[in-house]
Amino acid sequence: MKIGIMGGTFNPIHNGHLMLGHAAYEAAGLDQVWFMPNGNPPHKKSSSIESDVEDRIRMTELAIAPYPEFRLELYEARRTEVSCSYSTMEYLKKRYPEDEFYFIIGADSLFAIETWRHPERLFPTCTILATYRDEVNTKEEMNARIRYLTEKYDARIRLFVTPLIKVSSHELRMMVKEGKNIAPYVPKDVAVYITRHHLYQ
What we know:
single chain, 8 helices, 39% helix, 16% strand
């Protein structure tokens, strides 16, 4: 199978995440997209993640439930150690040797990927699927970056374009805190869950 990996804190998961997953699924002809909530990401302190990992898992589960091509993957969420992309992908590649993995990221991550831990170990495990975001708005810059990474790491990188939803999880948390309506930006069941469990207030 061709499997796309969508990692993130999903704090909360929103329509932009789902749109990105669908776009990658279509662009690369994937069989499944696995949504992987991160329990202990290297770039964020646990104390800064404002909701419990179990809440983030449940919101992700609710968001992807209507889509048979999406699956919840709990490997990182259940780890107590810091989860790094290279080690996660090495684990998945070893556990599912018959499958082909595609790691889904935004343009900002593509430009920052050399600051990640052991990028040289990430590239052999998967094809990188990189999409546009606000941070980079020219295809030429993206293609130049792809050429550089391909030559340096023998990386496999594919570019795809998605419509941009101008909302972030941080903005949604602030909206909830301020009593604003987030229903247009998140799946209905996620909005209900946030209200029912008094998250981000």
